[in-house]
Amino acid sequence: MSRLGSNKGADLFWAHAAAFGALWGAVEITLGSFLHSLRFPFCGVLLTALGVAILAAQRQLLPARGVSLATAAVAALCKSISPGGIILGPMFGIMIEGLIVELFFLAVPRSLMAALVAGVFCACWSAAQQLVTQYLYYGQDLVELYLAAVRLAGDWLGLSAGAGWTALFAFAALLSIIGAAGGCLGWRLGRDARQSIEDGRQLRAPDAA
Amino acid sequence: MPPETRKANRILSALAVFCVAAQFGGALLPSLLALGIWLGALAYFRPRVLRRLWLPRFWLLTLFFGLSCGLLLGPRDLQWLGLPLSRAGLASGLLMVVRGVFVFALVTWASQSLSGPGLCRLAGKIGAARLAAAVSVALHLLPELQRRLMMGRRGRLYRRGLGLIVQTAKLAEEMAGERVIVAAVVGPRDSGKTATLHEVSARLLAAGFAVGGISQPKIIEQGRRQGYLLRDEANGQQHAFAQRGTGGFSFAEEAWQWAHERIVQARRSARVVVVDELGLVEASGGGHLRALSRPLADESAVFWLLGVREGCQDQIGHSIGPIDRTLAADAPAAEREEFLQWISNHPRLCGSAVFRVSP
């Protein structure tokens, strides 16, 4: 079912987008508020991993083109009702995550590899978004400021220039593992959910006949 | 949106464009001027947005960036409290602070102006009506999904996650389904079926669902039932149906036709169709059942709400398909409320009401 052209297909597409978008929105609002209030480390990356898990699971159940992007749009608009000063940043983040997942599943629908790679990219994006936002707020000087601070820290600690890159790679690897775990969890949840729903249908089939 | 708010938004939008343009040169003075204009405009038009700018973490970070620029960027040509600072670095830090505060204030205003309903309206205007509809449904589902997230047994996270995904997928399938959901108020004669049906349909109507079909109120004179009326649930129009005669009740033939037309019309135009008093006549395939048993290609109803005489529900179910849920006519108030909530929150009803968007 890679293309849904009929009204029935369109209804199912949007019904999935609404239901899974609401689920993602509920996770963002409920769990997100909880983790943020606890000042939980890597809270944003964890929420991103859960978002990828929801999208990857949904893609196993309805492998329709564009459904991840539509779900992200619904979740982002759900997020817009949450109280707080700034919502455009998180909404933009959700949309980008939806776009990343969509692009990878567009290439290889229902694939574990797509779920894993999408998870990695989304987690890295989640961390990078903070930097992008700061760049948009403060401009080019911020980049020079960060580079100067890293050079100074390296001088103080007596580290070589390459050590900074190693630390950066280690950090990116940690993010990638969290993101990939989210993608893998979603892929498995989606497959098990599909199996569970099909089993339920088979059990009901004799009655329907 | 009130006209004053719309006017204020237009003025602020124009000012925002001007202030953003003033930032392009990268010079401190125009940036500072633009920030002053923008904050002044917010104070005048949107003081609430200005209050939302009070975020200590953001201000501390901004101050930290500004001072760090003086410490780390440019040649050190200034001494302050024994610290070697750079004039060029401080100027660049000040520009960063001004620019950061301006963009932050701009984003806060945009966030406030475009939240929730505003974005849905915008989506509808730019041709994304289905997206706007899906968001409306999602917002409707949000409290229930939040409840499901918070409830459940701890310690079995995978099973809980699986349950949530399965339930969400079933919710989606139910919303997009084509099957008509049938609910029935069941009871013996004079048990209050009509009053219950009318109460439920009135509340669904008040909640914004299109309701049609017929109910069958009694005509009581001198404490005695003298006959029946037919009432169109969509508009309250009434028609004489039965009169007590010497040998029992006599039914007006054209009233059956009137009811038939109203039921079929309701199946084509309403979301919820009410049909009252399905009894022995309907159990044998006649009466109002004829308006329900024939499939319609252009059926728009997703819910049939029936009043069924006790003991007839099985035969009626054979003709029109299974009855999904029943309510005893004399059920206590809490049970009635639960029944009403089940109907009004049913994914089939809230989903189909908005997914079938006219092209």
Describe the overall structure.
The complex is a heterodimer of chains A (209) and B (359). Chain A has one domain (7-208). In chain A, helix 1 crosses helix 3. The radius of gyration of chain A is 20 Å and the shape is elongated. Chain A is mostly helical and 209 residues long. Chain A is built from seven helices and no strands. Chain A is 84% helix and 0% strand. The mean pLDDT of chain B is 80. Chain B has three domains: 3-115, no CATH class; 133-174, no CATH class; 178-355, P-loop containing nucleotide triphosphate hydrolases (Rossmann fold), CATH 3.40.50. In chain B, helix 1 (3-23) packs antiparallel against helix 2, helix 2 packs parallel to helix 5 (87-113) and helix 7 (129-150) packs antiparallel against helix 15. By secondary structure, chain B is α/β, with parallel strands linked by helices. In chain B, strands 3, 4, 5, 6, 7, 8, 9, 10 and 11 form a nine-stranded mixed β-sheet that branches. A two-stranded antiparallel sheet of chain B has the order 1-2. Chain B is elongated and about 115 Å long. Classes of the chains: A mainly alpha (209), B alpha/beta (359). Chains A and B meet through helix 1, helix 2, helix 3, helix 5 and helix 6 of A and helix 4, helix 5, helix 6, helix 7 and helix 8 of B.
**How would you name the oligomeric state of the polypeptide chains in this document?**
heterodimer
Q: What's the number of structural domains of chain B? A: 3
- What class, by secondary structure content of chain B? alpha/beta
In what range is the share of β-strand residues of chain B?
Answer: 15-25%
Structural class of chain A: mainly alpha
Corresponding CATH architecture of the largest domain in chain B: 3-Layer(aba) Sandwich
Distance between the termini of chain A: 25 Å
